[in-house]
Amino acid sequence: MEMLAQALPRAFYSRDPREVARQLLSKLLVRSESGNLLAGRIVEVEAYMGEDDPAAHSAAGRTLRNAVLFGPAGHAYVYFIYGNHYCFNVSCMQEGQAGCVLVRALEPVEGIAEMTARRGMAPSTSLNNISNGPGKLAQALGITRERDNGKDLTSAESSDLWIANDGYSPEDIVTTARVGITKAVALPLRFLIRGNLYVSGPRNGMR
DNA sequence: TACATGATGCCCT
DNA sequence: GGGCATCATGTAG
């Protein structure tokens, strides 16, 4: 699996977050950890549009925290939220323009025992409770702001975190409103694989 | 320097 | 289905 998988190039991310979001479905998010691989298939994402999107961290312009969003595409934007959780995003667009994709859920593929342990769950934990949410998947892959914010995701050689294409693509994509935000709540910018068992909470537009 | 808030998850009822 | 932990960041004062 890993041998055939190729890291997605920067050009993949250098475009509209809505397009990047849809194209990221079924790709692999991979962590290399002292010789071991932790990997999950991306099954749910959300697009954040930059300065025109009131719900985006970049809405009020560049700050110290969100600087990665204004840099080159294909880099990790990781932030700490609610005093407990990390959220993992990929920067999009050209340098100078914000915009990103939040990865909200993964289908566990590789290193499942390790991911389960990192989540503090029993080995018998159901597979669909390991990485079905942005905070959960960050914990499962050991993603933190300190370790990963700003990291280049386009190379498996120079980074221990990247996104790979192993040839899969979703049969059907469901589009819904985004989850957990208070501004621009109605925009249809959440995308998930139809019928997938590993997505977070709401499997349709209702919540 | 102080304060309000949040792209969540878990536990309780 | 609802309450709440917990803290980094940004903005106001």
Compact overview of the structure:
The chain is about 15% helix and about 30% strand. The mean pLDDT is about 95.
Key terms for this structure?
207 residues, alpha+beta, DNA-binding
Structure write-up:
With 207 residues, the protein is of the alpha+beta class. Helices cover 14% and strands 28% of the residues. It has five helices and nine strands. Strands 1, 2, 3, 4, 5, 6, 7, 8 and 9 form a nine-stranded antiparallel beta sheet that branches. β4 (76-81) and β5 (85-91) form a beta hairpin. The mean pLDDT is 94. The structure holds a DNA duplex (13 and 13 nucleotides).
Task: Compile the SSE list and pairings.
Blueprint lengths: L5 E2 L2 H4 L3 H8 L3 E6 L2 E13 L27 E6 L3 E7 L8 E11 L1 H7 L15 H7 L4 H4 L12 E5 L7 E4 L13 E4 L14
Antiparallel strand pairs: 1-7, 2-3, 2-7, 3-6, 3-9, 4-5, 5-6, 8-9
The chain binds a DNA duplex (13 and 13 nucleotides) through strand 4, strand 5 and helix 4.
